[in-house]
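Protein in question passed on here:
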Amino acid sequence: MKAAVLTNKLELEVKELSIPSPLEDEIIVKVKACGICGTDQHIYHGQPGSAAVEYPIVLGHELAGEVVEVGERVTKFKRGDRVSIDPNIYCGECMYCQRNRQHLCENLQAVGVTRDGGMGEYCAVPSANCYPISDEMSFEEGAMIEPLGCVLHGFSQINIQPGTSVLVVGGGYIGLMMLQMAKVYGAFPIIVSEPDQTKHKLALQLGADEAVTPEQLDQNTEGFEIVIECVGRKESMEQAVKMAKKGGEILLFGVSAPDTKMEIHPFDIFSKELSIKGSFINPYTHEQAIALVEKGKIQIKPLLSHYFKLEELPSVMRDYRQKNVIKGIIQYS
């Protein structure tokens, strides 16, 4: 099989590897589609992912495909089944797992982060991390269930109700999914702040009541009840806190570099009684995310802006930040 192997920081090459054999509780997936996540870019540039990365590694934690082989103890799946993968593997024994906060597992493992993932033609995955998808769902949509699951967990962190005013900071892939989820919850108005005005049209098509630039946003004096930051940059996080109104909630969802710092005035948190929350991965939200896509509540296809082949990945990962990608997908035959 061919796979794009990250051998060191900034060093990715397509290699021939042996097709893995399943352990007794694993299945082998012939990968049909794999998303390129911002976390993949972080790892490529030498920053941490959801867990510590050791080279060499095949990245790709957003994936879907077809079952080609099952381990001897697997009974839920058979050859030919179509599956979407939840990459996160919890130990079940640490304090966080035992307190039902598995996503904070002290021994977290993840497909495409600590073990080989979807940037290869075949992938070994624990059967417990595989979810069936219908024939009506494309493999590209199936690969995008994982980030939608992360969005769902983010929404569990905030108190959003029908009629809640929402600001989404960042009109990229995650921001546009956050926008759609806010619509599902009946939020109004929903404003998307995005400096690239070419993305405003898509935000409006997906249900934003208004799309503005950060400079235009600064002219808003009312503030918002919920602010969802989806960028992870100093200036966008600071603006997110600034734009929350009294009693507001700020969800810092965008993944910042580990050394990023932001300035906050504690008096603002005190006087406005603000709540600031984080959100980490997607604890057991995969099934809900599949349902949202299958029922047409969340649109995935309009967000897929670039399609790549496995052989292109060394140059794609090198130049990714210059390609103006909303979401990139690796397609397999």
About this structure: The first helix runs from residue 38 to 44. The chain is about 25% helix and 25% strand.
